[in-house]
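Order emerges. As here.
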Amino acid sequence: MDIIVCIKQVPGTSSVEVDPDTGVLIRDGVESKMNPYDLFAIETALTLREESGGKVSTITMGPPQAKEVIMESFYMGADEGYLLTDRKFAGADVVATSYTISKGINKINDFDLIICGKQTTDGDTAQVGPEVAEFLGIPHVSNVSKIIELREESIIVEMEMEEKIEVQEVLFPCLITVDKDINTPRLPSFKRKMNMKSKEIVTLSINDFDDRDEKNYGLNGSPTQVERIFPPELKSERQVFTGKSIELTDSLFTLLQDMKYL
């Protein structure tokens, strides 16, 4: 079985600045890490490979520094890695991001299953995985919390809905997004790190795609535009109430009324 895992490098700190003109995060020079949900996706892929054989490839879109998460996936056990990087990809919303990743996956071509983390910690939209599947024209299932059975032509999964748990069988090729309850990710192997320092990462740009129309990528290809985005303000103001229980209750009730929460 050939599995592709979509991963992303996200800010490793909450102290991130925003470009006032484009409204996107300024990622250059910011401490970064792999998106936590993607660790569960990689572990799922590696476990399935151990069961059925095959190959695990990881793919990410981002600046050249994003190769760090590809290398981390190698240390965990991935076989191949692909980095989609081009200035023309910058400023992409979920649609343009999904389209770009789908074009990258088309270059890989041969796959049975695509696994994504449920969402990213810098966007929290949980839309990229399903949209990649739609661009590829393959079935997809989100919020997968358990792999029940792997069959020759399909996979049976358990997905958590708001009020119930649903079981689905999905034919290959397909895409699933996994939640954090599906497993416990393994730690990167120091031995693999030593052996794979020179492991090659395949780098792809817009010139490698069959669609080279710049209007379909990055900020130009994003149908949604953020009207305003700003980092949260850090406030240290506080009020301290003292007294008996009934006095504290009255004080808190009055405060909530004044703030128009009640």
Observations:
- The two ends are 56 Å apart (CA to CA).
- The chain has one domain: 2-221.
- The longest helix spans residues 36-52.
